[in-house]
Design a protein that fits this description.
- The chain is of the alpha/beta class and about 290 residues long.
- Among the domains are: about 5-90, Winged helix-like DNA-binding domain superfamily/Winged helix DNA-binding domain (Arc Repressor Mutant, subunit A), CATH 1.10.10; about 165-265, D-Maltodextrin-Binding Protein, domain 2 (3-Layer(aba) Sandwich), CATH 3.40.190.
- It is built from nine helices and eleven strands.
- The protein has helices at about 5-15, 20-25, 30-45, 60-90, 100-110, 130-135, 200-205, 220-230, 275-290; strands at about 50-55, 55-60, 95-100, 120, 145, 155-170, 190-195, 210-215, 235, 250-255, 265-270.
- Strand 3, helix 5 (about 100-110) and strand 4 form a beta-alpha-beta unit.
- Helix 1 (about 5-15) packs across helix 2 (about 20-25), helix 1 packs across helix 4 and helix 2 crosses helix 3.
- The mean pLDDT is about 90.
- This is Putative HTH-type transcriptional regulator YbhD.
- One of its GO terms (cellular component) is cytosol.
- It holds the Pfam family HTH_1.
- GO terms for molecular function: DNA-binding transcription factor activity.
- InterPro entries: HTH-type_LysR_regulators, LysR_HTH_N, WH-like_DNA-bd_sf, WH_DNA-bd_sf.
Length: about 290
């Protein structure tokens, strides 16, 4: 026996709002429609789920259970639809997420050139590395650019490249004359930083003692401050290819940071059944990283 989804929705809504009038208003139907639906549901279940009194109708204990189980069925149906639609979308398009902005900068650069024909959908909202596996299993992404090499029964990873952090310092400071600096060398300094930098936020805050970070939400504000002030700021071997991040007319010197923590390996993590769809994109990213960023 199959029960129509709309009957289950009426039951769940009635349990939530408590009256036929409120149920009808919420579902944007007439009260007689709800009444007929509830009667039909009782007939199909062949049990009494409503206690009908003069001017009042409530759920029986069986009705309470029915409403609870109805919610489970609705959730399962919604999950079924969502999963199938995402799966279909990811086979026709390539949706990409990341835990840091750098790899996405490279991807956008390639999207306007070598990958111009690919149906790529980039999510600019950076995710927590802890969520990558769950997001992939839920078919929310074709692949995720992450700092973790994930290998499970369903997921595998491909190395894409290494992002290397450097700091831009006023040319008249002693540190600017060094071939490289350590995080400890930067102790106590105040930095201008783009707010949404993903995993680099934790790295810099943990590694540089007593530092202050002045986060900027807007790239334009970040550019103006760095152009007309002596505050140090960070760049990487990837960010240099983004023209929007170029600072014109500044006198800072770019100095590499020597610590191992300033170098992050990035991998593309993906469901194994997606490999065929994304392989050419990953190969293009790999080649571009090796050619331009190493």
């Amino acid at each position: 026996m199959m029960i129509d989804n709309y009957l289950l929705e009426e039951l769940v809504t009635f349990k939530k709002y408590g009256t036929l009038a409120a149920t009808a208003e919420h579902l944007m139907v007439t009260q007689p429609t709800v009444t007929r639906g509830m009667q039909k549901l009782e007939e199909e279940l062949d049990v009494e789920i409503f206690d009908r009194q003069p001017n009042r109708i409530t759920l029986t204990k069986t009705g309470e259970l029915a409403a609870k189980e109805a919610q489970k069925v609705i959730d399962q149906n919604n999950s079924f639809i969502d999963t199938v639609q995402k799966y279909d979308y990811n086979h026709k398009n390539v949706r990409i997420g990341a835990v840091a902005p750098g790899p996405l900068i490279l991807l956008r650069h390639l999207k306007s050139s070598k990958l111009a024909q690919a149906k790529i959908d980039i999510d600019d909202n950076l995710m927590n590395p802890k969520d990558v596996t769950k997001e992939l299993l839920n078919h929310n992404y074709s692949f995720v650019l992450t700092n973790q090499e994930i290998m499970t029964d369903d997921i595998e990873s491909r190395f894409i490249g290494t992002e290397e952090l450097s700091v831009n310092l006023n040319q008249f400071t002693l540190l600017a004359n060094k071939k490289s600096v350590s995080f400890v060398d930067l102790k106590g300094l105040s930095f201008i930083v783009i707010a949404d930098i993903g995993i680099w936020k934790d790295i810099t805050e943990k590694q540089i003692p007593d530092a202050k970070f002045l986060y900027q939400d807007q790239q334009e504000a970040f550019r103006e401050i760095t152009k007309y002030s002596d505050f140090p700021y960070f760049t990487t071997n990837i960010s240099k290819i983004d023209r929007k991040l170029e600072i014109e007319g500044h006198d800072q010197i770019n100095v590499p940071i020597s610590d191992d923590a300033a170098k992050v390996d990035f991998y593309a993590a993906y469901l194994k059944n997606q490999k065929k769809n994304i392989n050419s994109i990953l190969k293009t990213m790999n080649e571009a990283w090796d050619k331009h960023l190493n």
